[in-house]
Amino acid sequence: MSTEPDRDESGGLGEVEVRELLLHGPPAEGPARSGLGGGGHATMRQVLAQLRLVEQQDSARGLFLRLGPMGGAWGTVADLAEAIARVREAGKPVHCHFDSLDNAGFALAAGSCDRLSMTPAGHLDLVGVAAQVFYAR
Fold first, then answer.
1. For position 28, what pLDDT does the model report?
2. Model confidence over 29-41: pLDDT tens digits?
3. Are the CB atoms for 6 and 13 separated by under 8 Å?
């Protein structure tokens, strides 16, 4: 017998609450492989559907988003940012928490969230613009 409560399709218990969404990396574009080492990751379609439900359901009062590095998936970040913006437009606050982020993940968090928090031992792996000039005489 499971002690885990039944959750609805948005990840909630059907009560007035803040929904939690885990994105430890960019969502898969297609269905996950099954078998050893496969599965366990939500697809982009599933993540967008979950965000839409949080946006539409009155029982969802906000979103707690746990982020991880996005691995340079800038197109995915843009799609997620649009979906999160719709949640915020619905009047629901978005809090983002992370352990470590890269450039793409930080762009998503900084542009999409009302509030940011980082694990005390976490880090930002941001890479800026660099130029090397070779001068020979």
1. 83
2. 776 665 555 556 7
3. yes
pLDDT for 130: 64
Question: In 3D, which of 20, 27, 128, 22 has the Cα closest to residue 70?
Answer: 27
Parse the chain into domains and list their residue ranges.
17-30+38-125
pLDDT band with cut points at 50, 70 and 90 for residue 88: very high
Check residue 133 and give its pLDDT. Answer: 76
Q: For the packed helices 74-89 and 103-112, what is the interaxial angle rounded to 10 degrees?
A: 10
The DSSP symbol for 32 reads P
User: pTM to 2 decimals?
Assistant: 0.75
Q: 81-120 as b/e, with b when 16 or more CB fall inside 10 Å?
A: eebbeebbeeebebbbbbeebbbbbbbbbeebbeebebee
Residue with tokens 């613009």: 129
Q: What are the start-end ranges of the E strands in the chain?
A: 17-23, 60-67, 94-102, 115-125
In eight-state DSSP terms, residue 66 is E
Q: Report yes or no: 67 and 109 within 8 Å, Cβ to Cβ.
A: yes
Superfamily of domain 17-30+38-125 in CATH is 2-enoyl-CoA Hydratase; Chain A, domain 1 (3.90.226.10)
